[in-house]
């Protein structure tokens, strides 16, 4: 493979072992994930950090490959062995030639909604009916499972009361094993290296835990429902493509009883709670501007990738230990602009054309960004206070807009107003907004050089 000129921050995968490093070199094993820190130290070498041990040292550029993004591909499946509705005889046909431990799962034709585990053993196929009981799945009324993934994982490691452990999945035609693809691209993490800590949040689809992955503090989103996990797999695939200091970074995933999405830990939680719990007495307007700028830069990056977030709001912005705001929750992120299910749309954040005609675009994200600015400068208030969703929809359509939050700098309120232009084309792009915010920052920060904690430039115009 041709050698690439990699930038600092690139994640790469070790192609082989390097167990006996010379002084200054980094030790690693095949498949380890390393982050390039500096490319200019020595010819043919990169200065890199080991993602799991945190150690730093030189690595030979020929011994690593870049961690690829996972292709967003609907055939990518967490359950490639699931064949849907096929009959018993069809299942038997698929499990030929016979091989002990070859298996598949099908949905029963006679009892729709019931699953059947079909396993080849001693030249025959045994069909185990999976019973759904008290929200759990079981074959023998002894072992219970949250979902099929959980069940297959168990019987792949234990014989339990079935005739053989499951040895080889018979993949459905056209299905691609997510596990295999994740592992090939370097995004599959090792559950034995993860220590789960306290529950730090409840998402719509699962709990979020604090944890540690080989010395690094992480957040782990656990998704137990197999159908939801499959949907989140697409979210994860999107995240593998994105790297920016203002987007919550994906470290990888773990497949165990469902899906665990491992991201960097944002120890100060979500932005709404952060603002509400601290308030005016603790957070000054420069800090508010920094948050606004952080989010804007993250969105500018999404804009440059032609990705639409669709659910931008302060609750979906998280705050790191060093108080950098990062955009999270790419659950709805899509390249295309039509969505069929608008029942759950966050009305107070969604642009009128997106609410009415399902027209989502970067410009509808800009509208949401305006609402987020309002949330920031009102220290986490709920937008359109005291108005019902129905009222908001009607009034906004008629041209009503929120008033400026108390003590909001006039320049910032003008930004909100242009984000809320009825006509999407008239709203500014994120890169324009960023320039305007930087100008605003210049006005508020007495010493622009020390204005930011992480060296972001401030334009003096
Ligand atoms: P939802 O499903 O409601 O969009 P999430 O599942 O993403 O929400 O997260 C729920 C809550 O868990 C967040 O509001 C936040 O407080 C916490 N949380 C999520 N991800 C992280 C993270 N990476 N670091 C710290 N806290 C997090």
UniProtKB/TrEMBL annotation:
Keyword set includes Cytoplasm: yes
Gene3D superfamilies for this protein: Phosphorylase Kinase, domain 1 (3.30.200.20), SH2 domain (3.30.505.10), SH3 Domains (2.30.30.40), Transferase(Phosphotransferase) domain 1 (1.10.510.10)
Binding site for ATP: 221
GO MF entry, a single one: non-membrane spanning protein tyrosine kinase activity
Catalysed transformations (reactions): L-tyrosyl-[protein] + ATP = O-phospho-L-tyrosyl-[protein] + ADP + H(+)
Pfam families per UniProt: PK_Tyr_Ser-Thr, SH2, SH3_2
Location in or out of the cell: Cytoplasm; Membrane
Main location: cytoplasm
Enzyme class, spelled out: transferase
Domain Protein kinase, residue spans: 194-441
Residues covered by the SH3 domain: 7-69
Enzyme Commission number(s): 2.7.10.2
SH2 domain boundaries: 81-170
Signal peptide: none
SMART domains cross-referenced by the UniProt entry: SH2, SH3, TyrKc
Keywords: ATP-binding, Cytoplasm, Kinase, Lipoprotein, Membrane, Myristate, Nucleotide-binding, SH2 domain, SH3 domain, Transferase, Tyrosine-protein kinase
Assembly and binders: Interacts with KIT.
Family indicated by similarity: Belongs to the protein kinase superfamily. Tyr protein kinase family.
Protein name in the entry: Tyrosine-protein kinase
Organism name: Lates calcarifer (Barramundi)
Taxonomic lineage from the root: Eukaryota, Metazoa, Chordata, Craniata, Vertebrata
Gene it is expressed from: MATK
């Amino acid at each position: 493979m041709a050698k690439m000129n990699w930038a600092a921050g690139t994640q790469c995968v070790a192609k082989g072992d390097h167990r006996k490093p010379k002084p200054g070199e980094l030790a690693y094993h095949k498949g380890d994930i390393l982050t390039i820190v500096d490319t200019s130290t020595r010819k043919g070498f990169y200065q890199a950090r080991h993602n799991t041990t945190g150690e730093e040292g030189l690595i030979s550029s020929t011994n690593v490959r870049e961690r690829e993004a996972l292709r967003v591909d609907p055939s990518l499946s967490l359950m490639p062995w699931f064949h849907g509705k096929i009959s018993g005889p069809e299942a038997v046909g698929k499990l030929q030639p016979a091989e002990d431990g070859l298996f598949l799962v099908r949905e029963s034709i006679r009892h729709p909604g019931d699953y059947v585990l079909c396993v080849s053993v001693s030249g025959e196929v045994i069909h185990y009916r999976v019973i759904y009981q008290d929200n759990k799945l079981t074959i023998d009324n002894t072992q219970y499972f949250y979902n099929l993934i959980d069940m297959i994982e168990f019987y792949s490691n234990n014989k339990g009361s079935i005739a053989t452990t499951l040895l080889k999945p018979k993949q459905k035609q056209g299905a691609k094993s997510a596990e295999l693809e994740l592992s090939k691209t370097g995004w599959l993490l090792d559950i034995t290296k993860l220590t789960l800590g306290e529950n730090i949040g409840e998402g719509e689809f699962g709990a979020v835990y604090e944890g540690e992955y080989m010395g690094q503090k992480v957040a782990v989103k656990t998704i137990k429902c197999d159908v939801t996990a499959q949907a989140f797999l697409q979210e994860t695939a999107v995240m593998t493509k994105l790297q920016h200091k203002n987007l919550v970074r994906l470290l990888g995933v773990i497949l165990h009883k469902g899906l665990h999405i491992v991201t960097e830990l944002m120890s100060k939680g979500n932005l709404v709670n952060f603002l509400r719990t601290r308030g005016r007495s603790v957070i000054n307007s420069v800090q508010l501007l920094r948050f606004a700028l952080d989010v804007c830069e993250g969105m500018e990056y999404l804009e440059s990738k032609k990705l639409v977030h669709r659910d931008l709001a302060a609750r979906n912005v998280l705050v790191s230990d060093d108080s950098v705001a990062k955009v999270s929750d790419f659950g709805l992120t899509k390249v295309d602009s039509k969505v069929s299910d608008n029942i759950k749309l966050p009305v107070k954040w969604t642009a009128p054309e997106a609410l009415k005609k399902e027209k989502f675009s970067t410009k509808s994200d800009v509208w949401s960004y305006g609402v987020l600015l309002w949330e920031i400068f009102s220290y986490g208030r709920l937008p359109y206070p005291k108005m019902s969703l129905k009222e908001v929809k009607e009034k906004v359509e008629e041209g009503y807009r929120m008033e400026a939050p108390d003590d909001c700098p006039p320049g910032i309120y003008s930004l909100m107003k242009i984000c809320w232009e009825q006509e999407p084309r008239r709203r500014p792009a994120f890169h324009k907004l960023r320039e305007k915010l930087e100008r605003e920052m210049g006005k508020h920060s007495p010493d622009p050089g020390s204005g930011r904690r992480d060296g972001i430039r401030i334009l003096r115009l």
